[in-house]
Structure formats: structure tokens, C-alpha cells
Amino acid sequence: MVHQKADGRGTGGGVGEPGTRQARATAPAAPADGPLDLGLLRTFLAVYRARSLTTAARMLRISQPTVTAQVRALEQQLDRQLFERLPRGVAATTVADELAGRIAGPLDALAEVADRGGTGLEAPAEPVHLAGPAEMVSVRALPVLAPLAAQGVLLRITTGLAEDLLEGLQGGRFDLVLSAVRPRGRSLTGVPLMDEEFVLVTTPGWAAGIGQLTCDDPGPLSDVPLVAYAEDLPILRRYWRHVFRTRLTARPAIVVPDLRGVLAAVVAGGGVTVLPRYLCEAELASGALVELLAPEDPPINTGFLVGRAGAHARAPVTAVRERLLAAARGW
User: Fold this and answer.
1) Could you give the 3-state DSSP secondary structure of residue 85?
2) Which of the residues 57, 127, 184, 189 has the least number of beta carbons within 10 Å of its own beta carbon?
3) Which 8-state DSSP code applies to residue 149?
4) In 3-state terms, what secondary structure has residue 178?
5) How far apart are CA 119 and CA 229, in angstroms?
């Protein structure tokens, strides 16, 4: 790859072995200050989306050494590193994220025009890259999207924090993002998907010991262990502020960075927590958990289905989007 020296100039190398005879033979020469070659950009975008030189070569119907050489040539022309070689596949740099965000839409539109009246050969299917919170993806999205596999739709799922995933969407890494945060700016468009109602829950045993609880006094909870998603209790703190009108300063007894783990810990007797109702409705229905309080105005958070403004609408992406929106009407 292109690595930066102290003087800012790129050195030799690439995503393959540096200086190989085959790479030198297939890499097109390009002036450092000249226009970027569309063929190199097309190869770059295929590698960026596939996160694999081998897969990109198969999609483009060229050899892997040619893909390696073309990516190296683009890195040399840009004087920037685009990918890091991993034991399996490649990882995109922030430079690659920014470049993909700029060229994905125009290249997709150009490819659509160029494919009309072409050879008639069907290109390998490209996966739909969907990202979102692990809990929402697992409990809400995947049960309604999994049947699309029978129709040939390929899904690749990434989970993480909203801000990171929206940044990845903006850079072209994802096609769609399920986000608990409203997207900002004109480059992303969000459609409200569902409202999460947060509930204060525990086991019947703990509830009996806590006794009567009101919105005016969270005091009965002061000695009860709290189970949280993160050390700073973001969901619990919001509930305390919204319902009890006070600031929560307690330290959690159990921290699990997955709300499904939080649910499991509370069901097992770990204490009290706040969860989205959809995540614990089965446990509430069965009596494994009880709701400690039923405020008239519970905390609500809106989830959004987010895409890139003006992005080329591929049929599989449209199918995923429509399936999610249809299912959300019943959530």
C-alpha cells in the first residue's frame, strides 16, 4: 500500500506484494496530477464494497493480480493509502470511505446506463449492507428480512453505535442503517420506522421487596442493583430524568453492552433495568418480569430507516427497505 513518509510522499507497495512483476505489468501508468481513471475507480469501488480483492476480481471478471495492481496504481496517483491488508480481505481507510462516498452514486448511475443492451451476462449479485443496533437488527429486522434469502437477496449485517454507523453510511460502506438517532445534514435521508417505549422492569421477587413506587419518589430503588447497557447508565439516566425528574447518580451492578444480555441478567435476578418494551414484551406477558411503574408519559425514542440521498436504487436494497417499512406498521 502507499505509506506516507515524513516528507508526505508515497512509497512503493500496494495491497499485494510490493514490486511484483505481475503487478508492474498490469498497473496502468497514471500521472500524479492527471485525471483519475474511471476503470481504476470502478475497481476501487468493487473492492471497497466487497472488502475482498478476490471477490472484487470475481465480480469484475478480471484476475486478482490485476485488481491488486489497479488499486495500487490508484493509491500511487492519489498518494494516499486506501486499504489495509487483513488476514482475510481488506479494511478501508478513512480516505477510502470519503472517496467511495463521492463516486458511488455517479458510478452506479453510469453502470446502469452502460449495462443496457450489453452482453446479457448477469453480474454476480451484490449484497445489501444493512447496519443498526444489535438488538433492533436481531429482534426486529432479521425475522422479517431472512425470507428474502429465498429470493436471492444477499444480506450483510453490521452492528454498532448510531453515530459510527451513520458515518459509515455517508461514506458508502452501508446501503441502509437502522438508527436510534435522527440523521443530520442533506446527504442522508431518514424515515421514521418505529417508536421504542422504555419500561422499568424487574422480577416479581425484586418487585415485592421494592414495594409501591411512584413518579414522585424513586427512593425505594436506592438500594436495588441496577443492570445497565454501559457504565454511565445512558438509558436508565434518561428514564430517571424523564419520569422521576431527578438525576441518577448510582453505579451499576452489572454492565452488559447488549440489551439482550441486560434482559437475561434481569430475568435471572440481577436487579432492575430499563428496556425497550418490544425487547421484553414476552417476559412481561409470561410474568418472568414485571413493570414497576406505568407513567402516563413514558420515555419514547424514534427509530429511523436511513439511506443516502440520491443513491442509486438497486432492486435488492429496495426490497429490503420495503419489507422493513411494511413490517414496521405492525411494530
Assistant:
1) strand
2) 184
3) G
4) strand
5) 53
Does the model's pTM come out above 0.85? Answer: no
CB distance 107 to 41 below 8 Å: yes
pLDDT confidence band for 15 (50 / 70 / 90) = low
The span from the CA of 65 to the CA of 61, in Å, is 12
Terminal Cα distance for the chain, rounded: 47
Cβ atoms 311, 188 nearer than 8 A: no
| Cell numbers that stand for 124 in this block | 454476480
Closest by CA position to 320, among listed 112, 143, 181, 130: 130
Nearest CA to 180 out of 169, 166, 201, 168 is that of 166
The rounded Cα 276 to chain-centroid distance in angstroms is 20
What's the rounded Cα separation, in Å, for the pair 112 and 328?
31
Distant-in-sequence, close-in-space partners of 83: CB < 8 Å, separation ≥ 6: 1, 15, 47, 48, 71, 90, 91, 92, 93, 96
Residue whose cell numbers read 458515518: 167
* Cell numbers for 143: 425475522
Alpha-carbon torsion (131, 90, 83, 312), positive or negative: negative
